[in-house]
């Protein structure tokens, strides 16, 4: 698999980062053991880094999958605001993943300079952890153009994980040209960039080659995180990236698998999911949550905050 350097001072990694949200309890598509098996299969094929987050609640799953792969790199993220919260998030990851040193740790879903300012204590704790050698590289994930621009100017930042696809789906401010301009700005500063949601949460899977080629052609974007929950998806994506022919049976099995956000009929209309959705894809209609499928990118964050377990990616 093609190896890339993540920014000017980042490590060499595979072009594909395994996006573990797809095998996490947040999406509930596979069991913990099944997900670990898929992840291990991806590692056997040459994928050598994994994207996760505290919110995904799958550290134990990853720890089980990476046994025998001491060199695999792991990126995690947290919503921590205070220094104490960040210390706790870092220690939770170190303990659960059985790692003395974490490769990457990011502030999760930063939207702007104002958001980053509100997380100043947490960021300063990340800087201290980096100085102590507890974390090697630090950064942010973001669905916002302003988040990329603010992150690029954040002292000590090494990597940005932005939403990026050829239709600009999921960008919560601005548009695709704005996002490309912000990414170019960050790349000129030497920051490592790996894209998320290149298939637009499943909306762009009708032309996966176009989606992959678009991201690959953007200067400054070195890699991409791909969510995969089956061996077939691993095989399909790696063949796609290698430029090799994809067998018809494999193409049909993977591309015809449509997913959606399911909202159970026992929804109580509490509205928690609306606040948790970064895309504004949910609303209440007659005190029941409904989803705008065009806006939903199938992240599953809404399901985490539902007290009645009404929401699930299926």
From TrEMBL:
Gene3D superfamilies: 3.30.70.20, NADP-dependent oxidoreductase domain. CDD domains: AKR_unchar (cd19100). The lineage of its organism: Bacteria, Bacillati, Bacillota, Clostridia, Eubacteriales. Residues 258-287, 289-314 form the 4Fe-4S ferredoxin-type domain. One of its GO terms (molecular function) is iron-sulfur cluster binding. It holds the Pfam family Aldo_ket_red. PANTHER family: D-THREO-ALDOSE 1-DEHYDROGENASE, NADP-DEPENDENT OXIDOREDUCTASE DOMAIN-CONTAINING PROTEIN. This is 4Fe-4S dicluster domain-containing protein. InterPro entries: 4Fe4S_Fe-S-bd (IPR017896), 4Fe4S_Fe_S_CS (IPR017900), AKR (IPR020471), AKR2_Oxidoreductase (IPR053135), NAD(P)_OxRdtase_dom_sf (IPR036812), NADP_OxRdtase_dom (IPR023210). It comes from the Bacteria. The keyword Endoplasmic reticulum does not apply. Transmembrane segments: none annotated. Keywords: Iron, Iron-sulfur, Metal-binding.
């Amino acid at each position: 698999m093609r190896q890339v350097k993540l920014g000017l001072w980042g490590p060499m990694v595979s072009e594909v980062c395994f996006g573990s949200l797809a095998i996490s309890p947040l999406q509930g598509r596979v069991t913990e053991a099944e997900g670990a098996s898929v992840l291990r299969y991806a590692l056997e094929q040459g994928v050598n880094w994994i994207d996760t987050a505290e919110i995904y609640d799958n550290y134990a799953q990853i720890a089980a999958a990476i046994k025998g792969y001491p060199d695999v790199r792991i990126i995690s993220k947290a919503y921590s605001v205070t220094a104490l919260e960040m210390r706790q998030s870092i220690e939770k990851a170190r303990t659960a993943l059985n790692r003395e040193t974490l490769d990457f740790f990011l502030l999760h879903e930063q939207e702007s300079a104002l958001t980053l300012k509100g997380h100043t204590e947490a960021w300063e704790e990340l800087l201290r952890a980096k100085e102590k050698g507890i974390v090697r590289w630090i950064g942010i994930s973001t669905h916002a153009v302003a988040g990329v621009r603010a992150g690029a100017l954040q002292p000590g930042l090494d990597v940005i994980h932005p939403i990026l696809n050829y239709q600009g789906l999921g960008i919560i401010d601005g548009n695709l040209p704005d996002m490309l301009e912000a990414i170019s700005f960050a790349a000129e500063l030497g920051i490592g960039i790996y894209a998320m949601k290149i298939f637009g949460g499943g909306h762009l899977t009708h032309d996966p080659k176009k989606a992959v080629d678009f991201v690959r052609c953007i200067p400054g974007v070195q890699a991409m995180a791909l969510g995969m929950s089956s061996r077939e998806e691993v095989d399909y994506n790696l063949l796609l990236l290698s430029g090799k022919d994809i067998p018809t049976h494999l193409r049909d099995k993977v591309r015809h698998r449509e997913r959606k956000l399911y909202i159970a009929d026992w929804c109580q209309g509490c509205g928690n999911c609306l606040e948790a959705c970064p895309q504004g894809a949910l609303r209440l209609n007659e005190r029941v949550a409904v989803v705008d499928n065009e806006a939903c990118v199938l992240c599953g964050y809404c399901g985490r905050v539902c007290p009645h377990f009404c929401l699930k990616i299926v």
